[in-house]
Write a structure and sequence with these properties.
By secondary structure, the protein is an alpha/beta fold. The protein has helices spanning about 40-60, 75-80, 95-100, 140-155, and strands spanning about 10-15, 20, 30-35, 65-70, 90, 105-110, 110-115, 120-125, 130-135.
């Protein structure tokens, strides 16, 4: 897992419509980069809808939201449409970016262990450095928690 102050790894990934996004596209802005396990599952849906509902607040704070999972473009497209999401979902089926951010690892569900995407969020500052890391995410209130942290960081830097 990356730490506060680390340079955020660069990436180029397609969104739900197949359009490429790079981290450099967002230089000069705050980036909320959140990793989630799977499209259209209960926790991931709550988290995505939370970011959808907080998008205008996050934009007012100068931030963009990008979601990343190992699902493909087609899966992202269905998920994006079904919940009227208003931010890009980036497809990383090779897990290259997921692994670069340390968001791939051992998980446990119903007594079984397996490898998968960990629910991590990184707040990246306008210069491309990690400003905050969340590695214990509660999907229901996470978007609000991120918005509050961003507001506090910005007040501290004034």
């Amino acid at each position: 897992m990356l730490q506060t102050g680390d340079l955020a790894p660069s990436f180029t990934l397609p969104d739900q419509e197949g359009r490429p996004h790079t981290l450099e596209d967002y230089r000069g802005r705050w980036v909320v980069l959140y990793f989630y396990p799977k499209d259209d599952t209960p926790g991931c849906t709550k988290e995505a809808c939370g970011f959808r509902d907080e998008k205008s607040h996050l934009e007012a704070l100068g931030a963009v939201v990008l979601g990343i999972s190992a699902d493909d473009v087609q899966s992202h497209s269905k998920f994006h449409r079904k919940y009227t999401l208003n931010f890009p979902l980036l497809a990383d089926p090779s897990q290259q970016t997921i692994r670069a951010y340390g968001a791939w690892g051992r998980k446990q569900f119903m007594g079984k262990e397996y490898e998968g995407v960990l629910r991590y969020t990184y707040l990246i500052d306008p210069q491309g450095r990690i400003a905050r890391v969340w590695d214990k995410v509660k999907p229901e209130q996470h978007a609000l928690e991120v918005a509050e942290a961003l507001g506090q960081l910005q007040q501290g830097s004034l």
